[in-house]
């Protein structure tokens, strides 16, 4: 993401973080460093005092230091990204890590450039390396250069293509692709007219068994064609491209003055050989793409099926590169060295992360199975529930990106309305559909599941999300600092919201009548002790006078006060006291940097995607609630545990990933704000909306929680405020938060099922 900048810090115990401007300044001084994360960040060694780095902009830093007494400067690439970065620090706005605009190619890190590189660049042993890079600076996943530390111009070791990823390719794809090519080659030889394609398949069989260190080239079109005979390539013809004689080729039979597509061999190939190989490469392409780290194999298969296999066989040359020879001149169709690249988790298609792209077909499968197979003839309810729950994750991602795109391209008012309207749409969709189903069936268990999910979201966002970010971020950074003043505002709102949400529960405990389902005299004495089971506080005594006259008005009052407090918090943090964030958007750019933003999604496109994702989310939530009943009734696990874990945290996975990415870049303030903002919205927006919904559509939902929910929520908020008091943390404090969260999960796991389930 775009780096942040503060005043220069003179740390002696670790490397400093840099940005685009640092990279330019370092290039001026010939300061070499190690490649950093995705984006424009660069790790480099600390410059000695004797070396003065000319400042082409303000010194950037990944650390937000609140004790420096200066504003934190965010260097944005364009106005849209600047608006998105500013929105990340606004209370109530969705925090989004990924770019909403296309980054210029020159601003990307070398690792990212490698992800998007074509598979047609050959390493040069004499004339340098691709793009003029030093091989010591590269970590190539799949493309032109090898992972090596040899100096420029030297050849890598002979066995450098034998890696674990390449061996994995051999086991998963290489052997059966090669065998299939051998079988197709035999079939084409049997047709006689397809013999040239049989020779091509034979050559490709050896290539796909181990394609690393080999190239597929396109040779020049033969100039001599006979009228009725053959289109031949002489055996003694030599080419500067190959540096020697061209291997002999079979002579394809074709009609007089006919092009390639009217040759008899081509007809036989398109009817017999190509469909089989195209299907095989399609299967390999889809499988490798879904595995993400093997996307290079997907690129290899896609280019083979769409280009190599459609060329005339006499124009395709497969050769192995020798480490000592100069790279061939002319067009190279395929050249690869690595089948696996772990950095492909950063890969994006039109700004969409590859995991969200891969999970999108899952949404279609879920909707088709859910509404076509309504009687569970093909799959069971448990499978449909799992698919519906997994489908919520990519839809949450698309909703989040659409909200961030619209907010970044709009003014403050539009952004605030969009975030307030759709910021909690994922959770509310599931809660409302569950309450409607429980009301129709007269099953109180659905209302208890919704309460458990609300509590699980609150506890998870207060303990698990910031704790996990502290642990992962603390592995890279010894100590992380964050804005304690902005965290204090969120903490105060959390105290207020938790107190308001659980006020009706405490009121019912004080004035409700304790009713027990079954009591036994353990002493056989009428005046002795009694052991009672299934005890609860009854609010409906005397025709519900206590509930309707006292508890229900309190619930409505709290549901009005909490959104009002949320609005006051927005005004406080965004208008009257916005300086507590100490954020300044800098217009520092590298020389020659383009200021025009090319957005991934325009406002109208983002709006359409937002509406479609919301519609699909409603359908998936309906399917999840439709097929959750067998799990609730037949499962041996407490319904409390299902609500506070699966139903509460699965929709928040995109937010958790964003928080981890911010923490890795030493921006723990945003990681903490992600969890706090969700927790505040649960109490101050989602719960009042559910109460308002019950007014127009009566359900079994009442704002009276179990004792376990009350104790877990209050303890979590108190612990979180204690950890965040000093404005700095490390991985140990994060471990404490995560362990407390797991302890609470263990309590929910062994807790008996709630009443009504």
Written description of the protein model:
The chain is mainly alpha-helical and 757 residues long. Among the domains are: 164-219 and 262-342, no CATH class; 347-522 and 530-589 and 596-750, A middle domain of Talin 1. 52% of the residues lie in helices and 8% in strands. The protein is built from 22 helices and 16 strands. Strands 1-4-15 form a three-stranded mixed sheet, covered by helices on one side. A hairpin with a 4-residue loop joins strand 6 (238-239) and strand 7. Helix 13 packs antiparallel against helix 15 and helix 13 packs antiparallel against helix 21 (707-723). The longest helix is centred in the C-terminal third of the chain and has 36 residues, at 541-576. The protein starts with a strand and ends in a 7-residue tail after the last helix. The model is unreliable at 1-70, 125-159, 223-249 and 589-594 (pLDDT under 50).
The end-to-end distance, rounded to whole angstroms, is: 46 Å
CATH class of the domain at 347-522 and 530-589 and 596-750: Mainly Alpha
**Biggest beta sheet attributes:** 3 strands, mixed
CATH superfamily of the domain at 347-522 and 530-589 and 596-750, by name, is NCX, central ion-binding region
Tell me the strand percentage band.
5-15%
Instruction: Please identify, by name, the CATH architecture of the domain at 347-522 and 530-589 and 596-750.
Output: Up-down Bundle
Structural class: mainly alpha
Q: Going across the major beta sheet, what is the strand order? A: 1-4-15
Count of helical stretches: 22
GO cellular component, one term: vacuolar membrane
Domain Inner membrane component: 165-214
Transmembrane segments: 167-190, 276-297, 352-372, 378-400, 412-433, 453-475, 487-507, 554-574, 606-625, 637-657, 678-697, 703-724, 731-751
Keywords: Antiport, Calcium, Calcium transport, Ion transport, Membrane, Phosphoprotein, Transmembrane, Transmembrane helix, Transport
């Amino acid at each position: 993401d775009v780096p942040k900048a503060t005043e220069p810090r003179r740390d002696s115990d670790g490397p400093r973080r840099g940005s685009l401007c640092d990279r330019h300044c370092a290039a001026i001084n010939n300061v070499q460093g190690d490649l950093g994360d995705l984006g424009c960040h660069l790790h480099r060694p600390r410059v000695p005092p004797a070396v003065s780095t000319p400042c082409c902009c303000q010194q950037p830093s990944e650390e937000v230091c609140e004790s420096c007494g200066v504003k934190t400067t965010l260097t944005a690439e364009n106005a849209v990204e600047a608006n998105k970065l500013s929105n990340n620090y606004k209370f109530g706005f969705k925090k989004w890590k990924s770019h909403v605009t296309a980054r210029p190619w020159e601003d990307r890190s070398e690792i990212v450039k490698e992800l998007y590189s074509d598979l047609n660049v050959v390493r040069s042993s004499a004339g340098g390396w691709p793009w003029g890079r030093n091989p010591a600076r590269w970590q190539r996943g799949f493309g032109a250069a090898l992972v090596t530390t040899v100096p420029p111009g030297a050849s890598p070791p002979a066995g450098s293509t034998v890696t674990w990823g390449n061996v994995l390719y051999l086991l998963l794809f290489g052997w059966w692709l090669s065998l299939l090519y051998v079988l197709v080659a035999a079939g084409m030889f049997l047709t006689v007219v397809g013999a040239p394609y049989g020779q091509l398949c034979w050559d490709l069989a050896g290539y796909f068994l181990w394609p690393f260190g080999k190239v597929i080239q396109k040779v020049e079109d033969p100039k001599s064609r006979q009228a009725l005979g053959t289109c031949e390539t002489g055996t003694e013809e030599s080419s500067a491209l190959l540096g020697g004689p061209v291997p002999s080729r079979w002579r394809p039979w074709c009609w007089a003055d006919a092009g390639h597509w009217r040759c008899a061999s081509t007809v036989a190939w398109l009817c017999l050989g190509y469909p089989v190989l195209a299907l095989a490469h399609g299967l390999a392409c889809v499988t490798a793409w879904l595995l993400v780290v093997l996307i290079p194999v997907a690129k290899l298969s896609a280019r083979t099926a769409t280009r190599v296999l459609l060329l005339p066989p006499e124009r395709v040359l497969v050769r192995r590169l020798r480490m000592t020879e100069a790279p061939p001149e002319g067009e190279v169709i395929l050249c690869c060295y690595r089948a696996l690249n772990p950095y492909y988790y950063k890969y994006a298609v039109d700004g969409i992360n590859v995991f969200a792209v891969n999970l999108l077909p899952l949404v279609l499968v879920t909707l088709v199975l859910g509404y076509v197979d309504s009687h569970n003839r093909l799959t069971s309810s448990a499978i449909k529930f799992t698919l519906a729950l997994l489908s919520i994750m990519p839809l949450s991602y698309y909703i989040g990106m659409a909200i961030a795109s619209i907010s970044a391209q709009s003014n403050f008012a539009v952004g605030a309305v969009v975030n307030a309207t759709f910021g909690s749409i994922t959770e509310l969709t599931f809660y409302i559909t569950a309450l409607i189903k429980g009301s129709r069936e007269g099953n109180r268990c659905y209302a208890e599941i919704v309460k458990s999910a609300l509590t699980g979201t609150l506890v998870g966002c207060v303990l698990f999300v910031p704790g996990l970010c502290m642990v992962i971020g603390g592995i890279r950074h010894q100590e992380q600092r964050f804005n304690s003043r902005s965290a204090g505002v969120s903490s105060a709102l959390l105290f207020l919201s938790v107190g308001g949400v659980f006020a009706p529960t405490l009121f019912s405990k004080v004035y409700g009548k304790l009713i027990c389902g079954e009591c036994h005299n353990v002493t056989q004495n009428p005046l002795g002790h009694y052991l009672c089971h299934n005890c609860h506080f009854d609010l409906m005594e005397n025709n519900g006078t206590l509930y309707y006259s006292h508890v229900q008005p309190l619930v409505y009052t709290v549901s009005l006060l909490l959104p009002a407090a949320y609005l006051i918090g927005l005004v406080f943090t965004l208008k009257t006291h916005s300086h507590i964030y100490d954020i300044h958007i800098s217009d520092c750019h590298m020389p020659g940097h383009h200021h025009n933003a090319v957005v991934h999604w325009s406002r109208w496109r983002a709006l359409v995607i937002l509406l479609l994702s919301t519609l699909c989310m409603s359908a998936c939530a309906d399917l999840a609630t439709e097929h959750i009943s067998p799990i609730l009734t037949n499962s041996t696990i407490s319904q409390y545990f299902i609500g506070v874990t699966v139903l509460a945290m699965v929709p928040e996975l995109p937010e958790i990933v964003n928080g981890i990415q911010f923490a890795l870049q030493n921006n723990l303030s945003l990681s903490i704000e992600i969890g706090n903002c969700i927790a505040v919205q649960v109490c101050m927006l989602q719960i009042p909306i559910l109460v308002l919904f019950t007014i127009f559509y009566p359900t079994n939902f009442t704002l009276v929680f179990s004792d376990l929910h009350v104790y877990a929520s209050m303890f979590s908020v108190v612990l979180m405020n204690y950890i965040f008091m000093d404005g700095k943390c490390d991985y140990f404090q994060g471990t404490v938060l995560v362990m407390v969260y797991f302890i609470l999960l263990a309590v929910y796991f062994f807790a008996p099922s709630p009443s009504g389930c």
